[in-house]
Amino acid sequence: MSSELDILIAPHPAGLRVRVRGEGSLENTIAYWQAILAEVRTSLRKPGGVLLIDEMSGDPLSAGQWQSLVEAMRGQGLEQVRIAHVKPQGLQLVEYCQIYASEAGLDAQVFEDEGQADLWLRHGER
């Protein structure tokens, strides 16, 4: 059974700002990505970017879990959305997640600093 998960979605100049908190598990990670997908799909103004502040605690997902998650996102509507994934508590060796995202056709970067992520999201080269 999954532990508590807190998802806060708000407008951002580039589209959406999403803050997630809770226990880092595959179930919770799938849940917050499903919430992001739902928001992207139902937004009247289609977001060009998502600033994701990931404050999940505990052990990070394995490389295989990230790869499965990213593959499940393929073709779901995130291909036209730039994603800045911020891990303020440390990257936890999830750089491979960025590689899998790129292979799936997603424009995503992983950051430790929200300011750098915001700058890349709004002004970075595509």
Automatic annotation (TrEMBL):
It comes from the Bacteria. This is STAS/SEC14 domain-containing protein. It comes from Arenimonas oryziterrae DSM 21050 = YC6267. The lineage of its organism: Bacteria, Pseudomonadati, Pseudomonadota, Gammaproteobacteria, Lysobacterales.
